[in-house]
Specification:
Layout: E1 2-4, E2 7-13, E3 16-19, E4 24-26, H1 29-39, E5 42-43, H2 45-50, E6 57-58, E7 64-66, E8 70-77, H3 90-99, E9 113-115, E10 126-131, E11 146-153, E12 160-163, E13 174-176, H4 183-200, E14 224-225, E15 254-256, H5 271-287
Parallel strand pairs: 4-15, 5-6
Antiparallel strand pairs: 1-2, 2-3, 7-12, 8-11, 8-14, 9-10, 10-11, 12-13
């Protein structure tokens, strides 16, 4: 961003500078938004100095408070059942092009379920999602038949950070999601994994599987991301990176509109909440 006299007046893209007439709206996501703010001089002052960036606004909460939904994937063998990837044939492609149905009409993950793993919870703390095939391994086609069940922890207490590695905007920031830093998050995943095993042991699925293929070991070693990062430039009261109208504290004419503004991670996918944030931001921008 171009910040002059305490106001955001435009953006820099390579050797190009584009000036704003009213406001600059930053929508780079929960990872890139704090990085861009810090590279522009808005962030924890000492951290910026360490990387050769002149602090314009000492904003300690920029890049802090990152949250993401931790995920584990359990898998069972289904040697007698064809997987979705085995149905990727020219005939089925023609069926989809002709009639819009068949295996190619599947996204591979049409169904999710939300549940409470403990009595008395005000909202679900686990999300499950079945996959019509084994746990994916990159972009390669699976070499086995199986079915996988995603288990996602929704009641997240752990908080991480996004910090700079370098003053070079082409360098990736340092991302610490701090998965399971709070033991309560591990407890949620363990209860969710046990529920997934109960689901697999129930008909009709129980009659199709032939043993669990989940790697043994500590659950912590198998935790991955649900790709729901949020909260790294949260709005809130005094001390928060943003005010309740999504304006960056300490800089006039600058708002953030993406998942980084969320004070706490929603209990579910972040797509719809981000749309809601954008709709609200549109009203705020129009009203000035």
């Amino acid at each position: 961003m171009l910040i002059e006299g305490g106001r955001a007046v435009g953006v820099v893209a390579g050797d190009r500078r584009v000036r704003a007439r009213r406001e600059v709206i930053l929508c780079a996501g929960a990872v890139k938004t704090p990085q861009l703010l810090m590279l522009s001089g808005v962030g924890p002052a000492e951290h910026l100095r360490e990387h050769g960036v002149e602090p314009l606004v000492d904003a300690p909460r920029v890049g802090q408070g990152l949250q993401d939904h931790p995920l584990v994937m359990l898998e069972w063998s289904t040697p007698g059942t064809r997987n979705l990837w085995e149905e990727a044939t020219p005939e089925n492609m023609a069926l989809w092009e002709r009639e819009g149905r068949g295996p190619f009409a599947s996204t591979g993950a049409e169904t999710i379920g939300f549940t409470r793993t403990r009595e008395g919870l005000a909202a679900p703390d686990v999300q499950h999602g079945p996959l019509p095939g084994p746990a994916p391994d990159g972009l390669a086609l699976p070499d086995r038949r199986g079915v996988a069940l995603l288990t996602i922890g929704l009641e997240v207490r752990s908080r991480g950070s996004v910090t700079l590695r370098s003053a070079d905007p082409r360098a990736q920031p340092a991302i610490d999601p701090a998965y399971l830093a709070d033991d309560a998050d591990l407890d949620v995943l363990e209860r969710g994994a046990e529920l997934a095993r109960r689901i697999a042991a129930t008909e009709p699925l129980a009659g199709l599987i032939d043993g669990e293929r989940t790697p043994p070991g500590d659950l912590r070693d198998r935790v991955g991301t649900a790709f729901h990062p949020a909260g790294s430039c949260a709005m809130g009261g005094d001390g928060a990176a943003l005010d309740p109208d999504l304006r960056v504290r300490g800089v006039d004419g600058l708002r953030v509109v993406d998942a980084s503004v969320m004070p706490a991670l929603p209990r579910g996918n972040t797509n719809a909440p981000v749309i809601a944030v954008a709709e609200r931001a549109a009203d705020l921008i129009r009203l000035g």
